[in-house]
Write a structure and sequence with these properties.
Layout lengths: L5 H14 L9 E7 L3 H9 L4 E6 L5 H14 L6 E3 L2 E2 L6 E2 L6 E7 L8 H11 E12 L5 H4 L3 H7 L10 H10 L3 E13 L3 H10 L22 E12 L6 E4 L2 E4 L12
Parallel strand pairs: 1-2, 1-6, 2-3, 6-7
Antiparallel strand pairs: 4-5, 7-9, 8-9, 10-11
Helix pairs in contact: 2-3
């Protein structure tokens, strides 16, 4: 997202914090994926002052945001837990963070999952990183986001470069995927937010920032009918959290359960 929509990233993060108020957890380590640009680190460090913060930063931050992020890391380095930036490997349509398995108790991901063509690979990686008893908390844009642009006629959509978000997962898709990835007790929630605009140009600016347009549009150089463009964007915000329970006992694949041999114990005969 561009700087113009940083307020949205902050607003959804605050709503995620409100939903976590009733959650009882004391993590020793937290992964933030992504942190943009350091706000989540500050808030989570305040909520969990003893936790060490691991984070992934988006590579396309503006210069002022990179400075803010650097200052945030410098501040966190004075805490006992400290912080550490993680690198991300995205080769072969997989996602791998440079961190050891079972290395954190909380994964926090705000407005990122919808950018993945295959969000399941992200959930698999989060499962690898989470310790037994850990929690994943996430939010992302659902498939109804930008439905006003998809309602335009075909020629206008082509001229504008309208596109769907990479992930088309709805709330139920995420819930099913969490269970398939062996997360326990998933809780899903969804809400709609309407963004109203004074002009179509402002709407198109944010539509591009959200990933709903393939390229930026300047209406001064556009030959279409501006009056037909909407001045509203609907956002479908999906929230979810789930726990890691009995991580090493078994796994499920194709509706079959596999038990690790080292979890099988024999009962000795009584004397």
């Amino acid at each position: 997202m561009t700087h113009s929509l940083r307020w949205l990233y902050t607003e959804i993060a605050l709503r995620m914090f409100q939903k976590m108020e009733i959650v009882k957890i004391k993590p020793c380590a937290i992964l933030i994926a992504p942190d943009y640009p350091g706000d989540h680190s500050r808030w989570l460090a305040k909520r969990f002052p003893e936790a060490r913060i691991f984070f992934y930063s988006r590579p396309n931050l503006l210069a002022i945001e990179r400075i803010q992020l650097h200052l945030t890391r410098w501040f966190l380095s004075w805490r006992s837990g400290g912080s550490k930036k993680l690198s991300l490997n995205q080769e072969a349509n997989t996602v791998t963070f440079a961190a050891a398995p079972n290395s954190c108790e909380l994964v926090w991901s705000n407005l990122w999952l919808h950018e993945r063509n295959n969000p399941k690979t992200m959930l698999t990686e989060f499962w690898r990183l989470l310790h037994e008893g850990g929690l994943i908390s996430l939010s992302y844009l659902g498939p109804d986001t930008g439905k006003e642009l998809r309602a335009l006629d075909g020629e206008m959509k082509t001229q504008l470069g309208c596109q769907s978000l990479p992930s088309a997962w709805d709330m139920h898709d995420l819930g099913d995927a969490l269970i398939e990835q062996r997360f326990a007790d998933p809780v899903m929630d969804m809400e709609y937010l309407d963004l109203q605009y004074e002009s179509a140009q402002l709407m198109l600016h944010d539509a591009y920032a959200l990933g709903l347009l393939a390229h930026p549009i300047n209406l001064q150089n556009w030959q279409g009918n501006e009056a037909l463009l909407p001045k509203k964007i609907t956002l479908e915000i999906i929230y979810g959290h789930a726990w890691v329970v009995n991580k090493h006992l078994s796994k499920t694949q194709n509706h079959q359960t596999f038990i690790s041999p080292d979890q099988i114990q024999t009962k000795g005969a009584k004397d």
